[in-house]
Specification:
Blueprint lengths: L19 E2 L20 E4 L2 E4 L4 H14 L28 H9 L4 H26 L8 E4 L8 E2 L2 E2 L13 H4 L3 E4 L20 H8 L16 H4 L11 E4 L12 E4 L3 E4 L3 E4 L15 H18 L9 E3 L7 E4 L14 H6 L7 E5 L3 E8 L13 E6 L2 E6 L6 E8 L2 E10 L10 E6 L1
Parallel strand pairs: 12-14
Antiparallel strand pairs: 1-2, 2-3, 4-7, 5-6, 8-9, 9-10, 10-11, 13-20, 14-19, 15-18, 15-20, 16-17, 16-19
Helix pairs in contact: 1-3, 2-3
Protein backbone atom coordinates (compact mmCIF):
# COMPACT_ATOMS: atom_id res chain seq x y z
CA UNK A 1 0.00 0.00 0.00
CA UNK A 2 2.67 2.50 1.09
CA UNK A 3 0.25 5.43 1.17
CA UNK A 4 -0.08 5.65 4.94
CA UNK A 5 -0.70 3.42 7.95
CA UNK A 6 -3.05 5.68 9.89
CA UNK A 7 -6.42 7.33 9.40
CA UNK A 8 -7.37 8.74 6.87
CA UNK A 9 -4.72 7.15 4.64
CA UNK A 10 -5.26 3.41 5.06
CA UNK A 11 -6.93 1.33 2.34
CA UNK A 12 -10.11 1.00 4.41
CA UNK A 13 -10.25 4.80 4.70
CA UNK A 14 -9.93 5.15 0.93
CA UNK A 15 -12.86 2.98 -0.11
CA UNK A 16 -11.60 -0.61 0.12
CA UNK A 17 -14.05 -2.93 1.89
CA UNK A 18 -11.75 -5.94 2.32
CA UNK A 19 -8.14 -5.28 3.31
CA UNK A 20 -5.11 -7.48 4.07
CA UNK A 21 -1.96 -5.40 4.33
CA UNK A 22 1.51 -5.19 5.81
CA UNK A 23 2.81 -1.91 7.19
CA UNK A 24 4.90 0.71 5.41
CA UNK A 25 6.34 0.17 1.96
CA UNK A 26 7.66 -3.35 2.50
CA UNK A 27 7.66 -6.24 4.92
CA UNK A 28 10.16 -5.48 7.69
CA UNK A 29 9.87 -1.72 7.45
CA UNK A 30 9.23 0.22 10.64
CA UNK A 31 5.40 0.38 10.47
CA UNK A 32 5.16 -3.34 9.72
CA UNK A 33 4.40 -5.85 12.46
CA UNK A 34 7.68 -6.10 14.33
CA UNK A 35 9.68 -9.19 13.41
CA UNK A 36 7.96 -10.03 10.11
CA UNK A 37 10.31 -11.77 7.67
CA UNK A 38 8.03 -12.82 4.73
CA UNK A 39 7.26 -16.26 6.19
CA UNK A 40 4.28 -16.87 8.51
CA UNK A 41 3.99 -13.13 9.07
CA UNK A 42 1.40 -11.10 10.94
CA UNK A 43 -0.60 -8.61 8.85
CA UNK A 44 -3.59 -6.31 9.34
CA UNK A 45 -6.88 -7.82 8.16
CA UNK A 46 -9.57 -5.15 8.09
CA UNK A 47 -7.71 -3.26 10.79
CA UNK A 48 -7.11 -6.26 13.07
CA UNK A 49 -3.76 -7.94 13.68
CA UNK A 50 -3.95 -11.50 12.31
CA UNK A 51 -1.22 -14.15 12.16
CA UNK A 52 -0.81 -15.67 8.68
CA UNK A 53 0.67 -18.94 7.47
CA UNK A 54 2.91 -19.19 4.43
CA UNK A 55 5.04 -16.99 2.20
CA UNK A 56 3.93 -13.37 1.85
CA UNK A 57 3.06 -13.45 -1.88
CA UNK A 58 1.17 -16.73 -1.50
CA UNK A 59 -0.77 -15.26 1.44
CA UNK A 60 -1.85 -12.17 -0.50
CA UNK A 61 -2.96 -14.14 -3.57
CA UNK A 62 -4.83 -16.65 -1.40
CA UNK A 63 -6.69 -13.78 0.27
CA UNK A 64 -7.48 -12.22 -3.11
CA UNK A 65 -8.93 -15.45 -4.42
CA UNK A 66 -11.09 -15.85 -1.30
CA UNK A 67 -12.41 -12.34 -1.91
CA UNK A 68 -13.11 -13.12 -5.56
CA UNK A 69 -14.91 -16.33 -4.59
CA UNK A 70 -17.58 -14.28 -2.90
CA UNK A 71 -18.15 -12.28 -6.09
CA UNK A 72 -18.44 -15.17 -8.55
CA UNK A 73 -21.65 -16.91 -9.51
CA UNK A 74 -20.17 -20.13 -8.17
CA UNK A 75 -19.68 -18.41 -4.84
CA UNK A 76 -23.21 -17.07 -4.69
CA UNK A 77 -22.39 -13.58 -5.90
CA UNK A 78 -22.77 -11.82 -9.23
CA UNK A 79 -21.57 -8.26 -8.70
CA UNK A 80 -18.70 -6.31 -10.26
CA UNK A 81 -15.59 -6.16 -8.10
CA UNK A 82 -12.21 -4.46 -7.98
CA UNK A 83 -9.31 -6.45 -6.53
CA UNK A 84 -5.91 -4.81 -6.09
CA UNK A 85 -2.91 -7.04 -5.27
CA UNK A 86 0.25 -4.94 -4.73
CA UNK A 87 2.74 -7.61 -3.69
CA UNK A 88 5.59 -7.01 -1.28
CA UNK A 89 7.85 -9.04 -3.59
CA UNK A 90 10.14 -8.44 -5.29
CA UNK A 91 11.23 -5.84 -2.75
CA UNK A 92 14.30 -6.01 -0.57
CA UNK A 93 15.31 -7.74 1.57
CA UNK A 94 15.30 -10.49 -1.03
CA UNK A 95 13.94 -13.46 0.87
CA UNK A 96 12.33 -16.49 -0.75
CA UNK A 97 12.21 -20.27 -0.32
CA UNK A 98 15.28 -22.11 -1.56
CA UNK A 99 13.36 -23.97 -4.29
CA UNK A 100 12.68 -20.71 -6.12
CA UNK A 101 16.22 -19.37 -6.13
CA UNK A 102 18.07 -22.68 -6.56
CA UNK A 103 17.65 -22.90 -10.38
CA UNK A 104 19.31 -19.50 -10.72
CA UNK A 105 22.08 -20.30 -8.27
CA UNK A 106 22.72 -23.51 -10.19
CA UNK A 107 22.99 -21.43 -13.38
CA UNK A 108 25.71 -19.27 -11.80
CA UNK A 109 23.57 -16.22 -11.01
CA UNK A 110 24.93 -14.26 -8.01
CA UNK A 111 23.09 -15.00 -4.76
CA UNK A 112 21.35 -11.63 -4.35
CA UNK A 113 20.07 -11.62 -7.92
CA UNK A 114 19.12 -15.31 -7.74
CA UNK A 115 16.89 -14.54 -4.75
CA UNK A 116 15.37 -11.57 -6.62
CA UNK A 117 14.65 -13.77 -9.64
CA UNK A 118 13.24 -16.42 -7.32
CA UNK A 119 10.78 -13.93 -5.86
CA UNK A 120 9.66 -13.04 -9.39
CA UNK A 121 9.26 -16.73 -10.23
CA UNK A 122 6.97 -17.07 -7.23
CA UNK A 123 4.94 -14.06 -8.42
CA UNK A 124 4.62 -15.66 -11.85
CA UNK A 125 3.41 -18.85 -10.21
CA UNK A 126 0.79 -16.94 -8.26
CA UNK A 127 -0.43 -15.00 -11.30
CA UNK A 128 -0.92 -18.36 -13.03
CA UNK A 129 -2.87 -19.61 -10.01
CA UNK A 130 -5.06 -16.50 -10.13
CA UNK A 131 -5.79 -16.91 -13.83
CA UNK A 132 -6.73 -20.57 -13.37
CA UNK A 133 -8.94 -19.58 -10.45
CA UNK A 134 -10.75 -16.96 -12.54
CA UNK A 135 -11.32 -19.53 -15.26
CA UNK A 136 -12.61 -22.14 -12.82
CA UNK A 137 -14.95 -19.53 -11.32
CA UNK A 138 -16.39 -18.60 -14.68
CA UNK A 139 -14.97 -15.09 -14.44
CA UNK A 140 -12.02 -15.15 -16.82
CA UNK A 141 -13.73 -13.89 -19.97
CA UNK A 142 -15.42 -10.88 -18.39
CA UNK A 143 -12.73 -9.86 -15.93
CA UNK A 144 -10.24 -7.18 -16.89
CA UNK A 145 -6.88 -8.41 -15.62
CA UNK A 146 -4.05 -5.85 -15.50
CA UNK A 147 -0.47 -6.79 -14.62
CA UNK A 148 1.99 -3.97 -14.07
CA UNK A 149 4.80 -2.86 -11.75
CA UNK A 150 5.71 0.36 -9.99
CA UNK A 151 9.31 0.94 -11.09
CA UNK A 152 12.21 -0.49 -13.05
CA UNK A 153 14.21 -3.43 -11.81
CA UNK A 154 15.79 -3.17 -8.37
CA UNK A 155 18.23 -6.06 -8.56
CA UNK A 156 17.70 -7.84 -11.86
CA UNK A 157 20.36 -5.91 -13.75
CA UNK A 158 23.41 -3.72 -13.31
CA UNK A 159 26.78 -4.42 -11.73
CA UNK A 160 27.95 -6.34 -14.75
CA UNK A 161 25.11 -8.74 -15.34
CA UNK A 162 21.42 -9.51 -15.40
CA UNK A 163 18.80 -8.45 -17.92
CA UNK A 164 17.17 -5.07 -18.42
CA UNK A 165 15.88 -5.28 -22.01
CA UNK A 166 18.58 -2.88 -23.18
CA UNK A 167 17.29 -0.05 -21.00
CA UNK A 168 19.59 2.39 -19.22
CA UNK A 169 19.23 2.69 -15.46
CA UNK A 170 17.44 0.76 -12.74
CA UNK A 171 14.97 1.57 -9.95
CA UNK A 172 15.10 5.26 -9.01
CA UNK A 173 16.78 6.35 -12.24
CA UNK A 174 15.47 9.14 -14.45
CA UNK A 175 16.46 7.05 -17.48
CA UNK A 176 13.90 4.62 -18.89
CA UNK A 177 15.29 1.66 -16.96
CA UNK A 178 14.10 3.34 -13.79
CA UNK A 179 10.49 3.90 -14.77
CA UNK A 180 9.52 2.04 -17.93
CA UNK A 181 7.47 -0.94 -16.79
CA UNK A 182 5.33 -3.73 -18.26
CA UNK A 183 1.59 -3.18 -18.37
CA UNK A 184 -0.45 -6.11 -19.68
CA UNK A 185 -4.22 -5.89 -20.22
CA UNK A 186 -6.41 -8.96 -20.75
CA UNK A 187 -10.21 -8.91 -21.14
CA UNK A 188 -11.61 -11.31 -23.75
CA UNK A 189 -15.17 -9.96 -23.62
CA UNK A 190 -13.79 -6.47 -24.07
CA UNK A 191 -11.73 -7.42 -27.09
CA UNK A 192 -8.42 -7.26 -25.24
CA UNK A 193 -6.46 -10.42 -25.90
CA UNK A 194 -2.80 -11.24 -26.49
CA UNK A 195 -0.42 -10.55 -29.32
CA UNK A 196 -0.44 -6.77 -29.64
CA UNK A 197 1.83 -3.99 -28.38
CA UNK A 198 0.75 -0.37 -27.87
CA UNK A 199 3.81 1.76 -28.72
CA UNK A 200 2.52 5.14 -27.49
CA UNK A 201 3.83 6.72 -24.30
CA UNK A 202 1.41 6.26 -21.41
CA UNK A 203 1.59 6.51 -17.63
CA UNK A 204 0.04 5.48 -14.33
CA UNK A 205 -2.15 8.61 -14.39
CA UNK A 206 -4.03 7.07 -17.32
CA UNK A 207 -5.38 4.21 -15.20
CA UNK A 208 -8.17 6.16 -13.51
CA UNK A 209 -9.69 7.76 -16.63
CA UNK A 210 -9.35 4.46 -18.53
CA UNK A 211 -11.08 2.33 -15.91
CA UNK A 212 -13.72 5.03 -15.41
CA UNK A 213 -14.49 5.01 -19.12
CA UNK A 214 -14.65 1.22 -19.30
CA UNK A 215 -17.03 1.12 -16.33
CA UNK A 216 -19.19 3.95 -17.66
CA UNK A 217 -18.44 6.23 -14.72
CA UNK A 218 -18.43 10.00 -14.90
CA UNK A 219 -15.23 11.60 -13.59
CA UNK A 220 -15.55 14.22 -10.83
CA UNK A 221 -15.86 17.81 -12.01
CA UNK A 222 -14.59 19.54 -8.87
CA UNK A 223 -10.91 18.78 -9.58
CA UNK A 224 -8.44 18.23 -12.37
CA UNK A 225 -8.03 14.57 -13.31
CA UNK A 226 -4.60 13.85 -14.71
CA UNK A 227 -4.20 11.34 -17.48
CA UNK A 228 -6.11 10.27 -20.57
CA UNK A 229 -8.40 7.33 -21.23
CA UNK A 230 -6.51 4.63 -23.09
CA UNK A 231 -9.68 3.03 -24.43
CA UNK A 232 -9.01 4.19 -28.02
CA UNK A 233 -5.55 2.57 -27.95
CA UNK A 234 -6.90 -0.59 -26.35
CA UNK A 235 -9.66 -0.75 -28.98
CA UNK A 236 -7.18 -0.20 -31.86
CA UNK A 237 -8.68 3.20 -32.63
CA UNK A 238 -5.56 5.35 -32.89
CA UNK A 239 -6.94 7.89 -35.37
CA UNK A 240 -6.84 11.29 -33.71
CA UNK A 241 -4.72 10.09 -30.79
CA UNK A 242 -2.95 13.21 -29.48
CA UNK A 243 0.80 13.76 -29.39
CA UNK A 244 1.43 13.57 -25.65
CA UNK A 245 4.17 14.89 -23.38
CA UNK A 246 4.47 13.17 -20.01
CA UNK A 247 6.74 13.69 -17.01
CA UNK A 248 8.44 11.63 -14.32
CA UNK A 249 10.75 12.61 -11.50
CA UNK A 250 12.31 10.89 -8.49
CA UNK A 251 12.62 13.38 -5.64
CA UNK A 252 12.94 11.66 -2.23
CA UNK A 253 13.35 15.08 -0.62
CA UNK A 254 11.30 16.94 1.98
CA UNK A 255 10.43 19.55 -0.65
CA UNK A 256 10.78 18.83 -4.40
CA UNK A 257 13.54 20.52 -6.37
CA UNK A 258 13.10 21.58 -9.98
CA UNK A 259 14.93 19.45 -12.58
CA UNK A 260 15.93 16.82 -10.04
CA UNK A 261 16.14 13.32 -11.56
CA UNK A 262 13.44 14.06 -14.11
CA UNK A 263 12.48 13.07 -17.64
CA UNK A 264 10.18 14.69 -20.18
CA UNK A 265 8.76 11.99 -22.45
CA UNK A 266 7.13 11.82 -25.86
CA UNK A 267 6.76 8.85 -28.16
CA UNK A 268 10.14 9.66 -29.70
CA UNK A 269 12.08 11.86 -27.26
CA UNK A 270 13.42 11.84 -23.72
CA UNK A 271 14.74 15.07 -22.17
CA UNK A 272 16.62 14.04 -19.03
CA UNK A 273 17.31 16.52 -16.22
CA UNK A 274 16.66 19.38 -18.63
CA UNK A 275 20.04 18.82 -20.32
CA UNK A 276 20.36 15.49 -22.13
CA UNK A 277 18.18 14.64 -25.12
CA UNK A 278 17.74 11.11 -26.46
CA UNK A 279 16.08 9.98 -29.68
CA UNK A 280 14.48 6.63 -28.84
CA UNK A 281 13.79 5.85 -32.48
CA UNK A 282 17.53 5.64 -33.06
CA UNK A 283 18.85 5.10 -29.53
CA UNK A 284 16.58 2.91 -27.42
CA UNK A 285 19.28 2.49 -24.74
CA UNK A 286 19.76 6.27 -24.28
CA UNK A 287 23.49 6.19 -24.91
CA UNK A 288 23.96 9.28 -27.12
CA UNK A 289 22.99 12.79 -26.06
CA UNK A 290 21.74 14.69 -29.13
CA UNK A 291 20.72 17.94 -27.42
CA UNK A 292 23.19 19.98 -29.48
CA UNK A 293 21.71 18.61 -32.71
CA UNK A 294 18.07 19.32 -31.82
CA UNK A 295 17.97 22.59 -29.82
CA UNK A 296 14.39 23.22 -30.91
CA UNK A 297 13.23 19.95 -29.36
CA UNK A 298 15.08 20.76 -26.13
CA UNK A 299 13.38 24.16 -26.00
CA UNK A 300 9.93 22.75 -26.66
CA UNK A 301 10.23 19.98 -24.07
CA UNK A 302 11.75 22.38 -21.53
CA UNK A 303 8.78 24.72 -21.93
CA UNK A 304 6.40 21.81 -21.41
CA UNK A 305 8.27 20.84 -18.25
CA UNK A 306 8.15 24.42 -16.92
CA UNK A 307 4.39 24.50 -17.42
CA UNK A 308 3.95 21.14 -15.70
CA UNK A 309 6.21 22.16 -12.79
CA UNK A 310 4.19 25.33 -12.25
CA UNK A 311 0.97 23.31 -12.19
CA UNK A 312 2.16 20.97 -9.42
CA UNK A 313 4.29 23.43 -7.46
CA UNK A 314 1.39 25.07 -5.65
CA UNK A 315 1.16 22.19 -3.15
CA UNK A 316 4.79 21.41 -2.41
CA UNK A 317 4.53 22.85 1.12
CA UNK A 318 1.30 21.02 1.96
CA UNK A 319 1.55 18.08 4.34
CA UNK A 320 -0.36 14.82 4.16
CA UNK A 321 -1.50 14.65 7.77
CA UNK A 322 -2.18 11.74 10.10
CA UNK A 323 -5.52 11.96 11.89
CA UNK A 324 -5.54 11.70 15.69
CA UNK A 325 -8.56 10.79 17.78
CA UNK A 326 -10.69 9.32 15.02
CA UNK A 327 -12.90 6.47 16.24
CA UNK A 328 -11.63 4.11 13.50
CA UNK A 329 -7.98 4.50 14.58
CA UNK A 330 -7.93 5.12 18.32
CA UNK A 331 -5.40 4.69 19.74
CA UNK A 332 -3.29 5.62 16.74
CA UNK A 333 0.26 4.28 16.55
CA UNK A 334 2.68 6.71 14.93
CA UNK A 335 6.05 5.43 13.73
CA UNK A 336 9.25 7.25 12.89
CA UNK A 337 8.83 6.02 9.30
CA UNK A 338 6.59 9.10 8.90
CA UNK A 339 8.89 11.68 10.45
CA UNK A 340 9.61 14.90 8.60
CA UNK A 341 13.35 15.48 9.07
CA UNK A 342 14.22 18.10 6.42
CA UNK A 343 16.21 15.44 4.55
CA UNK A 344 17.86 14.10 7.69
CA UNK A 345 18.02 10.36 8.45
CA UNK A 346 14.75 8.47 8.96
CA UNK A 347 14.67 5.05 10.70
CA UNK A 348 12.45 3.56 8.01
CA UNK A 349 13.15 -0.12 8.62
CA UNK A 350 13.24 -2.32 11.69
CA UNK A 351 17.00 -2.85 11.57
CA UNK A 352 17.41 0.90 12.07
CA UNK A 353 15.27 0.53 15.19
CA UNK A 354 17.29 -2.40 16.47
CA UNK A 355 20.55 -0.51 15.95
CA UNK A 356 19.24 2.55 17.82
CA UNK A 357 19.69 5.09 15.00
CA UNK A 358 19.98 8.56 16.53
CA UNK A 359 17.57 10.77 14.63
CA UNK A 360 14.47 12.87 15.16
CA UNK A 361 11.69 14.58 13.27
CA UNK A 362 8.09 15.66 13.59
CA UNK A 363 4.79 14.13 12.54
CA UNK A 364 2.35 16.27 10.58
CA UNK A 365 -0.96 15.54 12.30
CA UNK A 366 -4.54 16.68 12.39
CA UNK A 367 -6.43 16.39 15.68
CA UNK A 368 -9.91 15.28 14.63
CA UNK A 369 -11.66 16.19 17.89
CA UNK A 370 -10.87 18.39 20.86
CA UNK A 371 -10.38 16.72 24.21
CA UNK A 372 -8.00 14.91 26.52
CA UNK A 373 -5.34 12.67 24.99
CA UNK A 374 -2.80 10.22 26.40
CA UNK A 375 0.43 10.20 24.41
CA UNK A 376 2.84 7.33 25.10
CA UNK A 377 6.46 7.26 23.90
CA UNK A 378 8.24 3.97 23.12
CA UNK A 379 11.29 2.59 21.37
CA UNK A 380 9.39 -0.54 20.33
CA UNK A 381 5.75 -1.05 19.36
CA UNK A 382 3.20 -1.88 22.09
CA UNK A 383 3.60 -5.45 23.28
CA UNK A 384 7.40 -5.38 23.11
CA UNK A 385 9.16 -3.97 26.17
CA UNK A 386 12.46 -2.28 25.42
CA UNK A 387 14.33 0.30 27.53
CA UNK A 388 13.84 3.93 26.59
CA UNK A 389 17.49 4.51 27.60
CA UNK A 390 16.71 8.12 28.45
CA UNK A 391 16.89 10.39 31.48
CA UNK A 392 14.22 12.80 30.26
CA UNK A 393 11.36 12.70 27.79
CA UNK A 394 9.88 15.70 26.02
CA UNK A 395 6.66 16.12 24.06
CA UNK A 396 5.78 19.07 21.83
CA UNK A 397 2.46 19.24 20.01
CA UNK A 398 1.36 22.59 18.69
CA UNK A 399 1.80 25.13 21.48
CA UNK A 400 1.84 22.45 24.19
CA UNK A 401 5.19 21.35 25.65
CA UNK A 402 5.61 18.77 28.39
CA UNK A 403 8.76 17.25 29.88
CA UNK A 404 9.38 14.66 32.58
CA UNK A 405 12.07 12.48 34.09
CA UNK A 406 12.33 8.86 32.94
CA UNK A 407 13.08 5.94 35.28
CA UNK A 408 16.19 3.96 34.46
CA UNK A 409 14.27 0.79 33.62
CA UNK A 410 11.29 2.47 31.90
CA UNK A 411 10.05 0.99 28.62
CA UNK A 412 7.50 3.74 28.01
CA UNK A 413 6.48 7.16 29.26
CA UNK A 414 3.09 8.82 28.96
CA UNK A 415 1.79 12.38 28.90
CA UNK A 416 -1.83 13.47 29.31
CA UNK A 417 -2.66 16.68 27.48
CA UNK A 418 -5.65 18.69 26.29
CA UNK A 419 -5.67 19.16 22.53
CA UNK A 420 -7.81 21.33 20.28
CA UNK A 421 -9.05 20.07 16.94
CA UNK A 422 -6.98 21.18 13.96
CA UNK A 423 -3.67 20.77 12.17
CA UNK A 424 -0.50 20.54 14.22
CA UNK A 425 2.98 19.07 14.54
CA UNK A 426 3.95 16.42 17.07
CA UNK A 427 7.55 15.80 18.10
CA UNK A 428 9.18 13.84 20.89
CA UNK A 429 12.72 13.81 22.32
CA UNK A 430 14.37 11.17 24.48
CA UNK A 431 17.55 12.53 26.07
CA UNK A 432 20.03 10.15 27.78
CA UNK A 433 22.35 11.15 30.60
CA UNK A 434 25.19 11.11 28.08
CA UNK A 435 25.18 11.01 24.30
CA UNK A 436 22.89 12.32 21.60
CA UNK A 437 19.10 12.59 22.01
CA UNK A 438 16.70 10.90 19.63
CA UNK A 439 13.01 10.81 18.96
CA UNK A 440 10.70 8.09 20.20
CA UNK A 441 10.41 5.60 17.35
CA UNK A 442 6.82 4.70 18.26
CA UNK A 443 4.21 7.02 19.75
CA UNK A 444 0.73 5.90 20.71
CA UNK A 445 -1.90 8.64 20.74
CA UNK A 446 -5.24 7.88 22.40
CA UNK A 447 -8.27 10.14 22.73
CA UNK A 448 -9.65 9.53 26.23
Amino acid sequence: WHLGDNYPLRPQDQGFQEVLVHGGGGVGQTPDFFGNDYFDDTYWHNGQVVKQKGYCTDVFFDAAMRFIDGKSKNGGGDKPFFCYIPTNAAHGPFLVADKYKKPYLDAGVPARRAAFYGMITNIDENVARLRKHLAASGLADNTLLIFTTDNGTAAGAGRGGGFNAGLRGTKGSEFDGGHRVPCFWHWPNGGMVGGRDVPHVTAHVDMLPTLSAICGLKPPTDRTIDGTSLVPLLKRNTRGWPARTLFVHSQRLEFPTKLRKCAVMTDRWRLVNGKQLFDLDADYGQKTNVAAEFPGVVKQLSQSYDKWWASIGTRFKDYVRIGLGHKSDNPALLTCHDWHTNNGPVPWNQNHIRSGLKANGFWAVSVTRSGKYRITLRTRPPGIDHPLAAATAKLVIGKTTREQAVAADATSVSFTVELKAGDSRLQTTLTPKTGKPRGAYFVQVEAL
